[in-house]
């Protein structure tokens, strides 16, 4: 079965290496944050559906910073799949694996990566046709050691993982050294207090350091 994450999209994430995971409270912050990340070399982001402004922020970014690949995370319902697809989300992500949501996303044509943290989760995802999986919460689930043990029986299937949850500037390189890790997700790139302070220069600098980590871990594109 074809992966719910198309190959060109997966390749874009792999080139990026890091995905900025954001919680945005105000639409007016959306484009400045995206532009700061882009200046720092980070061109993929996941806006989480944890605030009422998230979908409007997505629309603003798609219009005002089109070079940013902007997806939506914390997709928990089929209605949310429809909502984010209508807002032109590049992809959807969920913290766990809800078969109804995954199947609805597939029918709707929304590239989708469900969350997994156990072998049973992986097998359920594979049965649904998913090959790109969010490993969440990565660090509290056991980090790289847990991922290595968990994914070993499925390596022949060509699965790729995007760890989120506890991934930070200090351990990103370790995760990226794993050939099965497509990219990592990081909320440290644009923290809520930095966004609230509208410190776009700080976000740009953090993104630049993240980009340097990716280049050091994987080499220049």
Shape descriptor: globular
**Architecture, CATH level 2?**
Alpha-Beta Barrel
Question: CATH homologous superfamily name?
Answer: Aldolase class I
Report helical residue fraction. 40-55%
- Overall SS class: alpha/beta
Structure overview:
With 221 residues, the protein is an alpha/beta fold. The chain is built from 10 helices and 9 strands. It has one domain: Aldolase class I (TIM Barrel), CATH 3.20.20.70. α2 (30-39) crosses α10 and α4 runs parallel beside α5. The protein is globular. The mean pLDDT is 96.
Give me the secondary-structure topology.
Elements: H1 7-16, E1 18-22, H2 30-39, E2 44-48, H3 54-64, E3 69-73, H4 78-86, E4 92-93, H5 99-108, E5 112-113, E6 115-116, H6 119-127, E7 132-135, H7 143-151, E8 160-163, H8 172-176, E9 184-186, H9 192-196, H10 200-218
Parallel strand pairs: 1-2, 1-9, 2-3, 4-5, 6-7, 7-8
Helix pairs in contact: 2-10, 4-5
């Amino acid at each position: 079965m074809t992966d719910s994450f198309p190959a060109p999209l997966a390749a874009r994430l792999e080139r990026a290496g890091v995905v900025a995971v954001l919680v945005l409270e105000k639409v007016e912050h959306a484009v400045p944050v995206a532009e700061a990340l882009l200046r720092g070399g980070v061109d993929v982001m996941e806006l989480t559906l944890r605030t009422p402004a998230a979908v409007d922020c997505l629309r603003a970014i798609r219009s005002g910073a089109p070079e940013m690949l902007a997806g939506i995370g914390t997709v928990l319902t089929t209605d949310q799949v429809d909502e984010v697809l209508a807002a032109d989300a590049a992809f959807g992500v969920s913290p766990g694996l809800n078969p109804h949501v995954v199947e609805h996303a597939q029918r709707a044509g929304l590239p989708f990566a469900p969350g997994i943290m156990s072998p049973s989760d992986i097998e359920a995802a594979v049965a649904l046709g998913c090959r790109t999986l969010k490993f969440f919460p990565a660090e509290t689930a056991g980090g790289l050691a847990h991922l290595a043990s968990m994914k070993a029986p499925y390596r022949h299937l060509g699965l790729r993982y995007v760890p989120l949850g506890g991934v930070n500037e200090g351990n990103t390189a370790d995760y990226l050294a794993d050939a099965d890790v497509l990219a990592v997700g990081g909320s440290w790139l644009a923290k809520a207090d930095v966004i609230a302070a509208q410190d776009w220069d700080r976000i740009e600098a953090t993104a630049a350091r993240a980009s340097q980590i990716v280049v050091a871990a994987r080499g220049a594109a």
